[in-house]
Amino acid sequence: MRKSDTTKKQNDVFKYVIGFLVCIILTIIPYSLVMNESLTGGKLLYVVLVFAFLQLFIQMFVFLHLGREKKPLYNTVFFASTFFIILIVVVGSIFIIDHLHYNMSPEDTTHYLAQRENISQVEGQETGACSELRQNHSVVIKDGEVSPIITDANLCDTLTITNNDDETREIAFGSHPSHDSYAGEEEISLRSGKSETITLSVEGTYSFHDHLDPDTYGYFIVSE
Amino acid sequence: MKELLLGKLDKNALPHEWFTIGGSVTFILMFLAVVAFITYKKRWRWLWDEWLTSVDPKKIGIMYFIVGGFMLLRGALDAVMIWLQQSLSAGSSHGYLSADHFQQIFTAHGNIMVFFVAMAFIFGLINYIVPLQIGARDLASPFLNTLGFWLFVAGVVMVNMFFFLGGEYAATGWLAVAPLSGTQFSPGVGVDYWLWSLQISGIGTTLGAINFIVTILKMRAPGMSLKKMPLFTWGSLCSMVMAVTVFPLLTATLFLLFLDRHFGSHFFTTDLGGNAMMYTNLVWMWGHPEVYILMLPAFGVYSEIVSTFTRKKIASYASNVIGMIGVSAFALLVWLHHFFTMGSGADINAFFGLMTMVIAVPTTMLFINWLVTMYRSKILFKTPMLWFLGFVGTFSFGGMTGVILAMPPADFQLHNSLFLVAHFHTMTIGGVLFGALAGISYWFPKMTGLRLNERIGRYAYWCWVSGFALAFVPLYILGLMGATRRLDHYESSTGWQPFFIVALLGGILIMVAIVLQVVQVIATIIQRKQLAVSGDPWNGRTLEWSTAPVPPAYNFAVIPEVTGSDAYWDIKQQASKKVVYEDILMPRNTASGIYISAFAFLTGFAFVWHINWLAIVSIIGIIAVIVSRNFDENTEYVLSAKEVEKIETERNKEFASKQHDIKKYEDADMGLIEFIRVVLNWALKTVRLKK
Amino acid sequence: MSEIKIAHHLQHERAAADRTLFGLWMYIMTDLLMFAVLFAVYAVLQNSTAGGPHGHDIFSLNFVMIETLLLLTSSLTCGLASLSAKNKDKKQLFIWLVATFLLGAMFLSLEVWEFSKLVNEGHTVSTSAFLSSYFALVGNHGLHILAGLIWIIVSSIFIRKRGLTHHMQRKINAFSMFWHFLDIVWIFIFTLVYLRAFI
User: Fold this and answer.
1) Residues 134-173 of chain A whose Cβ lies under 8 A from any Cβ of chain C
2) Is residue A204 a part of any domain in this protein?
3) Is the pTM of this model over 0.80?
4) Residue ranges of chain B whose pLDDT lies below 50
5) Which of A41, A55, A187 is nearest residue C199 as measured by Cβ atoms?
6) Complex confidence, ipTM
7) DSSP string across A22-58
8) Which of A209, B211, B647, C2 is the most buried (most CB within 10 A)?
């Protein structure tokens, strides 16, 4: 009798320790994936979320004994319904606010959003969105220098800015510190090694600089 | 130094407007009158021991009714002020209220009616009746029950506190939409009072909902499976599951607004990244299910009443339950219909519009159930049944206007118009209030041992129904004519004034109805000898009717065994068995609920006035009382079998002979004229005695 | 006769314990829903930095990993504590409770240090909507941890004074449910706040 009692106790402890170790692994993997940057963007986010949900279920089953209560399984039912309500609250809010943001943004942001979705006309009015993109121009920031410092482009060309320095650069348009936005683009945050492409959909001459280091600046001229 | 001690409190906070002086004087006089009366009757000990510290859900239920009834008068006064202002304030006249004051009035009216009247009546009914219906002695946690009640009271005090200190309430509408409710646009203490009264009572509601769910799921009498539960208990279960789901959302949202106002954060501000639309989104995620939380128990009441007064089992128990669950489930998926016009675009609006219209389907299942139950039955037209019939007409009409509003294109015209106001008043008055009144008149004999005066009850009912029609049909028409809600003044060229005046007449008729209801209760008390009834005055079908009126603290001497749904009906058909009494474990009264709520009130008050030391001390106080309650192991006592037997024998003797013929119930009731005669006689006698 | 009474009493105790733990489970569901709102708000406002810093500017993933490992380990020691309570081993129970407390306290101190560093650098709750949501979400979790720590202290005093009764076992189970759920919320803070900032 006593022996099976002790083995039962050992089993319980064993279960907890194994569960704990699995959770450690399920934490370290997403951490290293993010640090590694082998995956990026949307794909990485989904993978990391999968690990989070896996760990959630391990913890629910091992530590909180989900499903092992006496019948009827009220705890499980309430957890399942709470889970779904949380999804409704979080996903619903993101969905709704995203739509609101799209529809209720100020004019130049609407311009930029129309750009992203290739909408060239709304209610008979031209949005100014570029239906056809043309040439791509590349600008590289290295050692605090922007090269080329002036870019000559045509309307609806694209401009790619790459940050080859070690520090993060926050690219803003207009003069420092009171920035302007360009065609709805506000600030572009470029971490070391990253690049972003913007569509040159508005004519004129514009300057941009690193908000964190205003001596790093450049120009681009957009003509018809 | 003074700021450290008193925060933002100063001389200006004391009452100095006509309404704050009037309000505080009235409250103080009422309070003094009550204190004087209790002292004169030497009932302080009794009040504390028997009622205030009681954990008996029946007593707590009655206390909910009393506080709720009192707040109904306060909210009705707000309504009268609104009706008056809107009938007077056309063209060159600007009524008698300033715009800001008017805004505070309609905000207070909404808050009080939803949180402190409707929720109070619902909680009162569930507290009293559900344990009796499921054959339980008490709720799962008697302590949480009293705590929930006193947190609710703390909220009531908080919502009225501005009369004494501060002088202003929120002027933002009942949900205090951002950014109007932020510090930039509402710098005063009004919104803070609003916030803390809802936060404190909201936490009480969440704890109460948890309590009810655990009770219903875990404490039913043996043999009562979920499929055999009475329908009022089902309605309460669905309602409380919704409450436990959405009140935390409100708590979190109010917490964020508090952070904005108190710590300068930027959740809902107009600058530095705040998104006020998120507030609207979050608050309606709570707000829409809230109205169904109020409605589901009312649906349960109606199911009970239809079944009892048609002397039939409900037509289809299963579809009734499915209808209730369906309404609850869909209620969580429709909240955006409150802000179609905020701009989320056609696809999102379409989804939520469709979901809103779909709610009509389970609701219709319930209606068909009730109507089929009534078909080919002998209906007893007692007051509870009258309230149900009034509900059928009113609620279905209001529901149809709801389907109109559910269509985004129509809603773009009708959003925030008086059409909307008429719609939600139809639903809350025709649905929730009529349900509460139906429930109270139905279970009044159980709670007091007296049958309510039927005659005056009928007069009150007809005044309510016609008053309601007169007050709100003009509002539907005004809404279609383009009248916006919350207007304190309008141009006479709109031609709206006659409609507002008709609405005011309807309001006066409603006030008459309320007065008649007070008269009804007084007349019942005057005729208490003739109106005394047994434990089963309506020939009921569910377990609560098996006890004597004003059931003893332990509800049932012996927990009954249940065989079918309509449990008591089955028991009545069988021969009565010999009763074997046992010891009963009863919970002790406790004042911990009062103490925690007092500290909670002080915490909120401290945050309103930025009195930091008081906030810290009060929070520590809350923790201290909780810890000391934890250490208290002496929370129950034993009622011996002998004592139980004694109580039961006394009660059965008192109430055994009171079975009357239901059909002859009205003959003994006094009418209005006789009531006036009795009151005049009493008044003259008192005056003569004094001489 | 008294045997039946004792059996009745035990049955009553067990039923009462079952109800208490179910009630606490429901409470934890409501707490999860409150966190859901804070998560939703963070998700919506995380990019509203008003020209100020983004997450990847102010978070240190390594630091957060240490915090996460501390909290995960405290979850293990908490589970072992509830096992000791089940086995009526008072000495073991105290060891594991103290371990949970220390790990939780270390976690909280690291978090407080992280917050004060940010505030000293000028990144406060009123700097931007992003920072407001960050402090609200992570700060709220920290407040819950603090409540848990107070709970451990109170429980320990209770066990010292009254011994390891059935009543006390129920309380330890309740506490461990609460503590585990705090770690579960942390998984999502770790993922959706800290990891997310670097994706």
Assistant:
1) 168
2) yes
3) yes
4) none
5) A41
6) 0.95
7) HHHHHHHHHHHHHHHTSS-HHHHHHHHHHHHHHHHHH
8) B211
